């Protein structure tokens, strides 16, 4: 899902990724992505910090994964695709995520993941 952002102050070739730093599952995922992002193209923004800037409603951003790529706010599987495209090792997967049928399959999977996310968070605590 894409939401256009009216004002883009994002540097070229940078991806902004918002995540729930209070979620142990999210912490592990972001820690892994930080290690893969050797070029520093991704700016990770922890929404659990009180001073984190949110371009959308904070509750909405905590409920689903969000990223900004080329000024557009992306949500769910599309946001993961943007993050993957910024990491050379995962770029082929991110490019494939732009194909309509793959994007639909990833979003379908992501929605199902969100249903079990609370149980997984408890497991990883």
List key phrases describing it.
125 residues; alpha+beta; 5-stranded mixed sheet; 5 helices; 5 strands; 47% helix
Question: How would you explain this protein's 3D organization?
Answer:
With 125 residues, the protein is α+β, with helices and mostly antiparallel strands. The chain is built from five helices and five strands. The protein has one domain (2-124). It has helices at 24-36, 58-63, 77-85, 91-96, 100-124; strands at 2-4, 15-19, 42-46, 66-69, 72-75. It has a five-stranded mixed β-sheet, covered by helices on one side. The termini are far apart. The model has no long low-confidence stretch (mean pLDDT 89).
Strand content: 15-25%
The overall pLDDT, averaged over residues, is 89
- Which range best describes the helical content: under 10%, 10-25%, 25-40%, 40-55%, 55-70% or over 70%? 40-55%
- Main sheet specs: 5 strands, mixed
Spatial sequence of strands, sheet with the most strands: 1-5-4-2-3
The number of domains is: 1
Annotation, overall tally of beta strands: 5
Residue windows where pLDDT falls under 50 for at least 5 positions: none
The rough form would be described as globular
> How many helical stretches?
5
Give the radius of gyration. Answer: 14 Å
Element string (H = helix, E = strand) = EEHEHEEHHH
Helices and strands, with pairings:
Blueprint: E1 2-4, E2 15-19, H1 24-36, E3 42-46, H2 58-63, E4 66-69, E5 72-75, H3 77-85, H4 91-96, H5 100-124
Parallel strand pairs: 2-3
Antiparallel strand pairs: 1-5, 2-4, 4-5
């Amino acid at each position: 899902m894409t939401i256009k952002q009216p004002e883009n102050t994002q540097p070229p070739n940078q991806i902004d990724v918002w995540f729930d730093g209070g979620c142990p599952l999210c912490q592990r995922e972001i820690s892994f992505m930080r290690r893969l992002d050797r070029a520093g193209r991704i700016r990770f923004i922890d929404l659990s910090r009180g001073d984190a800037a949110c371009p959308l409603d904070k509750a909405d951003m905590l409920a689903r994964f969000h990223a900004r790529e080329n000024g557009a706010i992306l949500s769910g599987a599309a946001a993961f695709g943007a993050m993957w495209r910024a990491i050379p090792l995962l770029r082929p997967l991110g490019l494939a995520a732009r194909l309509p049928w793959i994007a639909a399959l990833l979003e379908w999977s992501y929605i199902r993941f969100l249903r079990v996310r609370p149980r997984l968070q408890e497991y990883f605590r």
